[in-house]
């Protein structure tokens, strides 16, 4: 072989950063050494791997073809190194991305299981909206994503993990809280505070409500669930959030789940990963332990 792992690591870092200087900082190399390694790799392969667009380096067709293969080699090399160093059969790193609800209520327990049973696995976690997690998996920023709802992209594989449901809630002092049943006409007149566009919660809610109401009065949109929850608990608003995120507030009497018979919003929480990703025992372990966790301790969702 004429290329080296160092050259592949430089290529991968430049692809991640879109910049030779940022890749050099990431790899603790000089900019000249980084540029030279990339030039040597392109010369050996006989193909340009990047083209410049403005200030950024963008993958060419050949670069996009090489990227998953280079990542596979680098991951295997790291696993070999860590396996021999730690004398542990299953070791390595997983970059996990999760949307807010699973990140807050499910992922901590799963990480605890992994830490206890597989102490040599290193886990980094990014918490973003569902659409951002999907894009992060596509951009190689995450090895595995945990998202809400479906994704239709043939570049990704999706495996259901568990289900949850969304609940429409208002403050205990809201006029709707006293009603045995809330109609669609009443919901149409309500002031809504919702998750931002791109979140799995917003997509699931809009898919269900659009069959009944064409135009909601969306008063505010926020990314963070605690902000929405507190505003609704203390104001004249209505929202729709995952049951796991409002369960304690309902039990404490701060929020009331509204009875809307026409709406039953259930959805899946799923693992997603790139279809071109080779067999990865660390990712497989994470998915397997997650499924076992839900079988051992099914949650009311």
UniProtKB/TrEMBL annotation:
Domain HTH lysR-type: 1-60
One GO MF term: transcription cis-regulatory region binding
Protein name: HTH-type transcriptional activator CmpR
This protein's record includes keyword Repeat: no
Keywords annotated in UniProt: DNA-binding, Transcription, Transcription regulation
Gene of this entry: cmpR_4
Family: Belongs to the LysR transcriptional regulatory family.
Family matches, as PANTHER family: HTH-TYPE TRANSCRIPTIONAL REGULATOR, LYSR FAMILY TRANSCRIPTIONAL REGULATOR
Gene3D superfamilies: Periplasmic binding protein-like II, Winged helix-like DNA-binding domain superfamily/Winged helix DNA-binding domain
């Amino acid at each position: 072989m004429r290329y080296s792992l160092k050259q592949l690591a430089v290529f991968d870092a430049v692809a991640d950063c879109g910049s030779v200087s940022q890749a050099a900082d990431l790899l603790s190399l000089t900019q000249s050494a980084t540029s030279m390694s990339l030039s040597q790799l392109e010369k050996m392969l006989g193909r340009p791997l990047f083209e410049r667009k403005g200030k950024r380096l963008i993958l060419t067709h050949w670069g996009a073809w090489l990227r998953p293969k280079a990542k596979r080699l680098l991951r295997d090399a790291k696993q070999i190194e860590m396996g021999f160093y730690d004398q542990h059969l299953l070791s390595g790193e997983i970059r996990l991305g999760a949307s807010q609800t699973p990140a807050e209520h499910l992922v901590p327990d799963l990480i605890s299981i992994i830490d206890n049973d597989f102490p040599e696995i290193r886990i980094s976690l990014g918490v973003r909206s569902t659409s951002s997690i999907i894009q992060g998996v596509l951009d190689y920023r995450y090895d595995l994503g945990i998202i809400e709802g479906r994704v239709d992209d043939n570049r990704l594989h999706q495996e259901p993990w568990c289900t949850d449901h969304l609940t429409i809630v208002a403050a205990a002092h809201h006029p709707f809280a006293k009603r045995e049943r809330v109609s669609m006409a009443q919901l149409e007149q309500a002031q809504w505070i919702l998750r931002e566009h791109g979140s799995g919660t917003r997509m699931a809610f809009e898919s269900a409500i659009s069959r009944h109401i064409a135009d909601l009065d969306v008063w505010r949109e926020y990314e963070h669930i605690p902000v929405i929850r507190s505003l609704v608990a203390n104001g004249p608003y209505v929202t729709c959030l995952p049951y796991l995120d409002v369960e304690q507030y309902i039990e404490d009497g701060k929020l009331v789940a509204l009875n809307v018979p026409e709406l039953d919003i259930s959805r899946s929480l799923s693992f997603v990963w790139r279809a071109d990703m080779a067999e990865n025992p660390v990712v497989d372990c994470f998915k397997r332990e997650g499924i076992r966790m839900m079988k051992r301790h099914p949650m009311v969702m």
